[in-house]
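go over this chain:
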Amino acid sequence: MTSAPSESHATTPPDWPHCGHGATPGDPVGCRGIHVRDHITCLAHLNEADRIAYLRALEPGTDIDHRGTPFTSELLDRLLQALRDPTTGLPRIGEALFGEASFSDDARFSGASFTGEAWFARASFSGPAWFVGASFSGTARFGEAFFCSAAWFSGASFSGGALFGGAAFGGEALFGSATFFDAALFRGPSATGTVSFGEVSFSGTVRFGGASFSGAASFSRASFSGTARFGGASFAGYASFNGASLASDARFDHMSFSGEVWFQGTSFSGDAWFVGTQFTAATRLGPLVCGGGVALDSAVFGQPVTLEIAARWVSCARTRWASTATLHLRYAELDLRDAVLEYPVVVSARPTCFPLPPKHPGDTLPETELSDHTPSVRLTSLGGVDAAHLALHDIELAECRFAGAVHLDQLKVDGWCTFASAPTSWYWRFPWRWSPRNTVAEEHHWRIRNAPHPEQATAQGWTPPPPDAPELRPAAVAALYRQLRKSLEDGRNEPDAADFYYGECEMRRHDATRPRGERALLIAYWALSGYGLRATRALTWLGAAMAATIAVMVLWGLPTDDPKPTTTGREVAVGQQIVLTTETPAPVNPTGPLTERATTERFEKALRVVINSVVFRSSGQDLTTAGTYTEMTSRLAEPVLLGLAVLAVRSRVKR
């Protein structure tokens, strides 16, 4: 139960001339009511004749000062009756000073018009307080006021500032359809009953910093045109912001939601800040649309929760997920640096607009302020995250920095997730072009930092590193590729995993700390077949090798004529055994001009020799010495090139 305001000031005389009625040795101050004009007592203790004379002298719009005065409902009614405007039939008051006044019964100010400042600071309402439809043209001050029972401000209009800092609400506090045209301060109030701001309109800054709501709190369909600050507020019951509209920044920093919190259909024109907020029992946040960004840095989610957010950016740096979570996002750049994932967390891009709450079936949440952006979701950083529990679905990872994350090999990448691409422009010094492949942002940053001409590398398509990006060694980038490759392989995404194997080998090739022999082998492997992943490169080398072998065979490898076996023997007498010897003459090297050797017949023979070499077979053709060694070399090299081409094709079609 909400306690009454502190009574430590009871023994201290007020700053105004006070009544002192009922003073005793134990209570030397007595009644704290201010003197009524030329009298020495307050309105409550004024004799009846003087009270009647005072009330008759009042007229609508008169300034009144009844600080510290104890009011009964009957006395208050008489006062307001004297101030009633005959045109409207409602009380019209100028400056109203009720600071530290006490209202023992119902306090009915419904429909009253306060044309000056209204002071109810430290006022005490023992019964219900009625301000329904009241109009405050000046500043309304209810700081540290105590509402023991219900407080109704429904339909009230606050043209000046509204100050409720430190107010205590022991019963319901209803602000439904109220309008705040200037700053509204609710910093530090406490409420044990239901607090409702349903359909309230706040045109200026509104502050709820340090407020404590033990019961239900409803801001459904409230409208905030200025900055809304809820920093440090505490909600022990459920809190509802369904359908609320905030036209400027909204700050919910370091709040505590012990019960459910609903933001279904909430719209923020500026940024929404939930830095350090505790969501102890929340199971859903959104759907909400934010024209700026949503900051959930250092927030804590204690229960399984679903977040549905459409915003330009969403920051979850150091956010702690103590249970499972699903993030459905649109348009956003997501930052997950140092987030703590204790259970599986799924991040997915929602392809369609979020629906409005059930009361609006078929309608979707307007996204007008985001229409100039594409609805895709871009992850920017996973540094410091244990990715073992993270699953990504349809997320753009072109700008994502993976450095500093652990267990990337267990990261689950599903759906249409895209990575950065290597530029495909022609290399500026040599007649070849970069191979199109998936890359990580860290390789882009490394190539810009280590390029002899960074501006040319940038022009080719490599992305420059942001100022806060750490400078990584090739071995560190290779480790990132290795872990991500394992993740894709576990997900049966072999083609994209092959790209990451290519990137890993590239970083190893450029790593000056590795042995020279290993780097030389990697250079040869890269040049011949793109690490066994570029079929075109391997087939090009195979075609070149076959063409060179054919040329050598035609010009020097084939003899002038095929040697014909010759059989020789000795003539013997009849009856004697015949001995015959068959010999093949050595091949004769071709002579004459080279142009005379390039005949169709010799080309056909050379082609047969080369094709048999590619499939690792002997042609059986008689060759010169040069041709024999050439065939031996081609039977070793060309099948390897053919195998590399087959391996490269296999890496692109493997399931």
Remarks:
- The radius of gyration is 43 Å.
- The CA atoms of residues 509 and 518 lie 8 Å apart.
- The longest strand covers residues 284-295.
- The mean pLDDT is 86.
